[in-house]
């Protein structure tokens, strides 16, 4: 079985400060890892993904995430938060081999305070 | 190009009525997923299509829920005898079919059962 944990329901950060949204995962095998963002009343939009190789993944809108195999984590980061980054962020995982549905975390609401 | 579209965007129905929700995936995408997002909850997987076949229906909550896909394209999610607990946003996503593929989400259908 595979699972994803986003331990924080909400993260508050001041505009201009660095932000981190946490994600840990559990799979039997090598993972594909994803981050999606959902703005109010919108569907989910892809931010970035880890497949293999370089542990630091860069994505849309200045976001990046670091794959840490030993800690089974894939935290989302941005050096300087914008008010427009305020949204709901979902981490997701899928194992490499065979068919497995993508498992999503419960989401973390990011609030960037002006 | 055109993204994933869903209709209707909003549906209000009375308890006990049947509803049909439609998803038009991106042209050429072979894989299609349905999810349910309840207020304050993450994404709940419902069903996965590869082409017209549904190899994973494990997330359908009850036999009141069914889905089909025709021509490897449009999919319809049907909920019979709706209950108030069915109220949620129903999201559809499509991909090319590979394990590392990004999921492209539609805007969702907000279902309210009175």
Per-chain topology:
The complex is a heterodimer of chains A (114) and B (114).
Chain A: E1 3-5, E2 10-14, E3 19-21, E4 24-26, E5 31-38, E6 44-50, E7 56-58, E8 64-68, E9 73-78, E10 87-95, E11 103-104, E12 108-113
Parallel strand pairs in A: 2-12
Antiparallel strand pairs in A: 1-4, 3-9, 5-6, 5-10, 7-8, 8-9, 10-11, 10-12
Chain B: E1 5-7, E2 10-13, E3 19-24, E4 31-37, E5 43-50, E6 53-56, E7 65-69, E8 75-79, E9 88-95, E10 104-105, E11 109-113
Parallel strand pairs in B: 2-11
Antiparallel strand pairs in B: 1-3, 3-8, 4-5, 4-9, 5-6, 7-8, 9-10, 9-11
Descriptive overview:
The complex is a heterodimer of chains A (114) and B (114). Chain A has 114 residues and is mainly β. Chain A has strands at 3-5, 10-14, 19-21, 24-26, 31-38, 44-50, 56-58, 64-68, 73-78, 87-95, 103-104, 108-113. In chain A, the strands form three sheets. In chain A, strands 2, 5, 6, 10, 11 and 12 form a six-stranded mixed sheet that branches. Chain A has a four-stranded antiparallel sheet with strand order 3-9-8-7, with no helix packed on it. The radius of gyration of chain A is 14 Å and the shape is globular. Chain B is an all-beta fold and 114 residues long. Chain B is 0% helix and 50% strand. In chain B, strands 2, 4, 5, 6, 9, 10 and 11 form a seven-stranded mixed sheet that branches. In chain B, strands 1-3-8-7 form a four-stranded antiparallel sheet, with no helix packed on it. In chain B, strand 4 (31-37) and strand 5 form a beta hairpin. The model of chain B has no long low-confidence stretch (mean pLDDT 93).
